[in-house]
Each structure stands twice: as C-alpha cells, then as structure tokens.
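Q: what sequence does this backbone want?
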C-alpha cells in the first residue's frame, strides 16, 4: 500500500506561510546545500521548471510518483504559466471545488470526497503520494497521513498559516530521520504511529 507523506516547509514556530498564505519569505532560506539535499533525496518535489534549471529533468522519482495540492498551493504556478508543475510525476491532483476543468491534461481535479480519493490512490501500486499543501488539506487528511517530512527553516514569524488546521488531537509520531544543514535548516521525518 502506498503511503501519504506530508512533505512541507515550515518556520520553527510551525507556520507554512504568512497570514494571507504567501510563503515567498521561505525562499530566502533555500541555499545550495539545501537544494543539494532535495536533488539527491527528493528530486521529484522540485517543479518541472526547477528541475530543468538544475539540469535534473530526467532524474527518476525516488519517493513519490503522485502529488496532491490544494487550489491555493497550485495557483501561483498556474499564474506563472506552469499549469503542470509536476508533469514528471505519474499523477498530479488539485483539490478544488471552483475549478471545473483541469488547466492541463496532466492535472486531475478532486472536487468530491477527498478522503475516499486518497484511499483509492493509496490502494493502487506505485511510489508514495506527496501531500504538497496546505493547512486545510492537512486537516482533512489528518487520519490518512502516514508520514511527515518537515523542512524547518531557521526563522520565527509569530503568526501565519499553520502546518495544519486539524484542531487539537494527539497523533503520536516516531522519528525516522533528522538532517541538519549548515544554513540552519533541519529536515526531520516521522512515521505516524497507528
């Protein structure tokens, strides 16, 4: 069975974006060492445009062959002329009630029962499924997430969009990996204890 992994960037105090959802401030904490880690361990999480710029457009997926993102996560790429940001993956999903047709033939829309759709995806053969963002999707899928990979940047912002809007609930995790980088970034991975 495939795993659903919430692979997300956050501040030390647990925010993935500003109060309006903008996360551009995070990019100032992305350096060459961090890009090297992504390229080596998670090449499929780099957008098609970024992969081309880095010369890794032919790098095979290592962990994920499907990505799920919310409309707000998808929108910036769409506005920048990237209607298929992860076209190198086997499956791209956008969760939206407002989009009625996919902006690109490689993008599939989920407008109905998200949990049922994810359970069906998990039952199919393949690599893992990357939950790309954001807080509302993480809340809706809280009981379906099997793993967290958290990229923590060395910054505190005080308020903003949280990693999840799931509300209070004790969800035990098991630490499975931790990598500290020279720029102060820390990448931790956790399996969900069931």
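A:
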């Amino acid at each position: 069975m495939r795993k659903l992994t919430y692979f997300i960037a956050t501040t030390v105090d647990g925010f993935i974006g500003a109060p309006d959802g903008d996360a551009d401030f995070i990019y100032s904490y992305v350096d060459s060492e961090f890009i090297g880690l992504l390229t080596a361990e998670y090449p499929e999480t780099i957008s098609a445009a970024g992969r081309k710029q880095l010369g890794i457009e032919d790098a095979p997926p290592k962990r994920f062959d499907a990505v799920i993102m919310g409309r707000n996560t998808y929108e910036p790429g769409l506005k920048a002329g990237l209607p298929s940001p992860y076209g190198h993956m086997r499956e791209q999903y956008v969760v939206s009630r407002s989009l009625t047709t996919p902006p690109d033939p490689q993008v599939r829309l989920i407008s109905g029962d998200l949990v049922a759709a994810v359970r069906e995806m998990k039952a199919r053969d393949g690599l893992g499924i990357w939950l790309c963002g954001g807080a509302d999707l993480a809340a809706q899928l809280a009981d379906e997430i099997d793993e967290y990979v958290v990229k923590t940047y060395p910054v505190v912002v005080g308020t903003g969009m949280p990693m999840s809007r799931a509300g209070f609930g004790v969800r035990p995790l098991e630490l499975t990996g931790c990598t500290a980088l020279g720029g102060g970034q820390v990448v931790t991975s956790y399996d969900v204890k069931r």
